[in-house]
Amino acid sequence: MASSQVGIIMGSESDLKVMSEAADVLRELGVEFELTVVSAHRTPDRMAEYAKQASGRGLKVVIAGAGGAAHLPGMVASHTILPVIGVPIKSSNSIDGWDSVLSILQMPSGVPVATVALNGARNAGLLAAQILATSDAALANKLRIYKYHLREKVENSIREIKIAGYENEFDQ
Description:
The chain is of the alpha/beta class and 172 residues long. The chain has helices spanning 16-29, 44-54, 72-77, 98-105, 121-133, 137-163; strands at residues 6-10, 33-37, 61-67, 84-89, 114-115.
């Protein structure tokens, strides 16, 4: 088995429902990943060690999902030079998700974290794959095919709307 290129971490097991979407898209694209729970607040030593050892273990990107105060992505980014993609999660103790979004989005200068939409783990997986594809031609081709199918899906829906009798001047 090839070594993992992407680390998917989350603050608690309750985040798995959201974070599994990153795993799903990476699996679809054939990208090796690992997935575990690493809490910035409850297991800070584990979190620091994970981040410090990530590059040496072959990881190239870390996806970190967290709800509430959402310190995990930023704290991981402070311990590694790898790109970190933050996934804000609307959790049970969340202020409608805004606390998580702002905690991840508002990183101080020098500690960047790429941030996707609230519960946007699928996009985090795609972004991680796109980062890896800058040096992996086969993965880049898989992403081109993925995007082609997205376009094809929209074009099919346009045809279905026309068949249903709805037309507009733009599509003439």
